[in-house]
Amino acid sequence: VQLQAFGGGLVQAGGSLELSCAASGSIFSIDAIGWYRQVPGGQREFVALIDWASTTNSEGSTNYADSVKGRFTISRDNAKNTVYLQMNSLKPEDTAVYYCNAKRPLDREAFWGQGTQVTVSS
């Protein structure tokens, strides 16, 4: 499974950005795609997750970190093999490198994209 993240950039506080994560390869084997973020010297932290394989919920079940609930929205487009992260009301503390992640339940393997920088100025 290969993941490519797009859409980072510089934005003022209160602004919006949308990140995209394009998946390729054996994507039939994964069950969820999510976003994590990391600041220099810090640990990679969970941001949001959407299930990928569900056929009963066309929009996919989602989960969010408390710090982004109500501001960020994760969504998927299975036809384009892409997951999006719409980020609104951005704060300086959202500044980080954002990584997309896919999970394969068969062997608990995790896959990572290359990361995209998001910088929110105050």
Shape: globular
**Total of helices:** 0
Whole-number average pLDDT? 93
Largest sheet: 7 strands, mixed
Secondary-structure element string: EEEEEEEEEEE
How far apart are the termini?
37 Å
Structural class by SSE content? mainly beta
Helix content: under 10%
Integer-rounded radius of gyration: 14 Å
Sheet-strand content, in percent, reads over 45%
Parts with pLDDT < 50 across at least 5 consecutive residues? none
Q: Write down how many β-strands occur, each being a DSSP E stretch of 2 or more residues.
A: 11
Task: Note the topology.
Blueprint: E1 2-6, E2 9-12, E3 17-24, E4 32-38, E5 45-51, E6 62-64, E7 72-77, E8 82-87, E9 96-104, E10 109-112, E11 116-121
Describe the structure.
By secondary structure, the protein is mainly beta. Helix content is 0%, strand content 53%. It is built from no helices and eleven strands. The protein has strands at residues 2-6, 9-12, 17-24, 32-38, 45-51, 62-64, 72-77, 82-87, 96-104, 109-112, 116-121. Strands 2, 4, 5, 6, 9, 10 and 11 form a seven-stranded mixed sheet that branches. The termini are far apart. 30% of the residues are buried. The model has no long low-confidence stretch (mean pLDDT 93).
